[in-house]
Amino acid sequence: MTGTMTIDQLTAEVERIFQAAGASELQARTVAEVIVAGERDGCASHGIYRIEGCLRTIEAGKVDVKAMPELDDDGSAVIRVRANGAYSVAGLAVGLPALAERARALGLAALVINDCTHFSALWPEVEQITALGLAGIAMCPSYATVAPAGGSKPLLGTNPLAFGWPRPGGRPYVFDFATSFMARGDVELHRIAGKPLPEGCAVDRDGNPTTDPQAALDGAMLPFGGHKGSAISTMIELMAGAMIGDMTSAEALDYLGTTTLAPKHGELLLAFCPERFAAGRADPFARAETLLEAIVGQGARLPSQRRFAARAQAEAEGIELSAEQMQMLARMRERVGLAG
Q1: What angle do CA 213, 216, 222 make, to 5 degrees?
Q2: Helices 49-59 & 7-20 angle (0-180, nearest 10)
Q3: Residue 76 burial (CB < 10 Å; 0-12/13-18/19+)?
Q4: Which secondary-structure segment (H or E) carries 203?
Q5: Does the pLDDT at position 288 exceed 90?
Q6: What Pfam families would the database entry show (predicted)?
């Protein structure tokens, strides 16, 4: 049976599941918010589908859902949060106020989140930055499931990169993409649905091109755009792994020993104050609108427009869940010992 829930109702339901799994109030709330954001915005691969993997990671003891992230702020442009094994979104909640304050004061600032478990898309992070009137970039490694361009064995992660620009009075300009040809969650959804992958997406364990989702999961995904995606993915390994003193994707996989759990590593977020960079030369937001309106004026679609359309519908009509999704929620409730 299908069902419709308001955003608040679904958030409360998911939060209840994580609290029953032992999560602190902060972690249960922040994890629930980002999962429901995926459903709200029509991104099924980052919605309630993710609950099972999160619970599996908790049960394996690879994330500390009772941990309280700690802020380490020495007054410089680099702010650090020690997540202490918590989910990354809890670390962001602790560090975001300091990041925003420092970016406004200095023009730009960085937030390093160390020792965290990451399972979600990055657009919720950059949208939290843009909501404060700042531009933002977020990046993190994953675990090694992607072969570098010209290679055939997993070494890089799907390594997402997100950017957000605030648009006063409207939805921000946001893009968020994996540097792999396809997000791993989408490969999983293709496997579940029995659908073949696009050509050029992956290789099997012998390095041969494949459109079989299971063969891709057993082998390696490929970066988007060949050497270009491979180079961006490597940049993320360097900046959000080596540079911040945290795990690269290969190290994260070694730590976990499996790709069935959410990876542990670090995350890097950068915040920029457009007014400080413009320094009174011109209104950066007005100039940005001229550019973005010109793009739309050519009939092009801005990234995230489909997400925002789905969000508006969900805000007005609630989130419609399929029979499979309703069954999934029921299984997750049962898994953590909740009735009904």
Answers
A1: 120
A2: 20
A3: exposed
A4: strand 202-203
A5: yes
A6: Ldh_2 (PF02615)
Sheet arrangement for strand 264-272: 70-72, 78-82, 108-117, 264-272, 135-139, 161-165, 173-177
**Measured distance CA(78)–CA(328) in Å, rounded:** 41
- pLDDT bin (cut points 50, 70, 90) of residue 340 is low
pLDDT at 183: 79
Beta carbons of 267 and 118 less than 8 angstroms apart: yes
User: Which secondary-structure segment (H or E) carries 285?
Assistant: helix 284-297
CB contact at 8 A, 269 and 99: yes
Mean pLDDT of 114-133: 96
Percent of the chain with pLDDT over 70: 100
**189-193, 202-206, 280-284: lowest mean pLDDT where?**
189-193
Indicate which residues carry an active-site annotation: 45-46, 186
Walk me through the domains of the chain, giving residue ranges and CATH numbers.
Answer: 1-59+304-340 (1.10.1530.10), 69-180+223-300 (3.30.1370.60)
The pTM for the full model equals: 0.93
